[in-house]
Amino acid sequence: MKIEVYSPTIRRKEMDAVLTAMVEDRIGPGERSRLLIQTAKEQLRFDYALALRSPATALHLALKALDLEEGQGVIISALSPRYYAQTLADLRLVPLYGDVSYTFPCMSRESIEKALEKKPDGVQARCIVLHHTLGFQPDTASIAELGLPVIEDISQSYGVPAATAAAELAKETAEQGITPNSHKEENSGAESKERVQGVFTILGLEERDMLTSGGGALLYAMNRRDASVLRNYAGIPPEYCLPDINAALATVQFKEAVRNMERRQEIARIYTQASLRTKHKRFIPLEEGEYNNYAFSLILESGLKDVVAYARKKEIAVESAFEYTLAGAGISDSGACPVSYSLSLRTVLFPLYPRLRSPEAERVSKLIMTLP
Q1: Hey, is 128 helix, strand or coil?
Q2: C-alpha distance from residue 231 to each of 57, 114, 168, 221, 225 (Å)
Q3: How many CA atoms lie within 13 A of 68 on its CB side?
């Protein structure tokens, strides 16, 4: 039986929650969406959140909330999802593409500074959108020191230990009336890294995100000042809001997250040992142990097509890690972001999800050990 790259972790609890929602009088936005927000708030400790139908809607509202003007620039990674470019185009904002490194798939302060140096004449950079690509967490504190508002997308990095600690510390500072950037000069090093958060945060709930509702997203703010801006959108039409049937699924996903991440970690350990016997390389988290094992990827020294064909013979699906990104789709400038473009051609993902059985994980491990 073929092992697929992705499989949503839907167990009996999730199915029961959805079925219960289906037999109620309402399946549109309502009480279950409010319950989802409350459940998420207990985990993330934000001040205010909106439950929305898609990450694209969340990004759209986050950019609108920053009151950006047409023609202004927004810095995004070339390895961001494709919908970023469409959302910016809809708002008539200018994308300024940042590159990554061969060891870490997110933008750094240095790569953002290079993007600022290369921006077109007359374009004013007004915002940074940080996508936590493949679950890796960028150094938000260092990036925030550039003085631009930051929107973080943690759709793939939910559950990273540093992110959890950051949420708790950010909440403490918010309760003291301290904004995300007002305290940055008072702290340095690791402590500062944990305290700084984006102005707004997007937690996607799509099929391939760390948590899923079958589609949707939470858009939230950690402190009262930024939350007050989001509250202006509390009255948006229900067509923009997450339906209860999806919210029911996402609520259970939050409650089962620890169990699922423990299973991911078990599988990742097996794959990591196997990868040590190959010539192919891996991305490295900024801090050891701070990774949620969203995915298992390898940067190939051989051709991607050869690896995909070899895996197919073993009835195991592998795929390009960045096929659905701006670089993978050829939307971003390959000349301005050469590393992202190179990675989009030779980085692959292997099956890693909580429902993967031990014999299947062993099959994938043997595949990794014997890759051409």
Answers
A1: strand
A2: 15, 35, 21, 10, 10
A3: 31
Q: Is 164 exposed, middle or buried (0-12, 13-18, 19+ CB in 10 A)?
A: middle
324 contacts 81 by C-beta, under 8 angstroms: yes
3-class SS of residue 4:
coil
Which residue in the block uniquely carries the two structure tokens 């984006």? 198
Length of the chain: 372
- pLDDT computed for residue 197 by the predictor: 55
Distance CA 31, CA 28 (A): 9
Q: Supply 99's token pair.
A: 């590159």
**3-class DSSP state of 175:** helix
Residue 291: how many CB atoms within 10 A of its CB? 24
Q: How far apart are CA 294 and CA 157, in angstroms?
A: 7
User: What gap in Å lies between CA 109 and CA 115, rounded to an integer?
Assistant: 10
Rounded-to-integer distance, Cα 149 and Cα 161, Å? 23
296-299 and 319-320 as β-strands: parallel, antiparallel, unpaired? unpaired
Tokens, residue 88:
């910016």
Report the distance separating Cα 173 and Cα 183, nearest Å: 9
Q: Phi/psi class of residue 313: alpha, beta or left (left: φ > 0; alpha: ψ in -120 to 50)? A: alpha
Token pair 């092992």 in the structure block, residue: 3
Global pTM reads 0.88
The upper half-sphere exposure of residue 229, i.e. CA atoms within 13 Å in the direction of its Cβ, equals 16
User: Is residue 139 within 8 Å of residue 190, measured between CB atoms?
Assistant: no
Distance, in Å, from the CA atom of 137 to the CA atom of 250, rounded to the nearest integer, reads 22
Q: Pick from 301, 371, 317: which is nearest to 1 by CA?
A: 317
Q: Which of 6, 32, 28 is nearest to 249 (CA)?
A: 32
- pLDDT, one tens digit per residue, over 229-273 is 999 999 999 999 999 999 999 999 999 999 999 999 999 999 999
Classify residue 106 by its DSSP letter.
Answer: S
Strand ranges inside the chain, DSSP E: 48-52, 73-77, 94-98, 125-131, 150-153, 200-204, 217-221, 296-299, 319-320, 347-350
End-to-end alpha-carbon separation of the chain, Å? 22
**Token pair in block for residue 368:** 């990794």
Distance CA 204, CA 54 (A): 7
Q: Spell out the domains of the chain, with CATH numbers in brackets.
A: 12-255 (3.40.640.10), 257-369 (3.90.1150.10)
pLDDT higher than 50, residue 11: yes
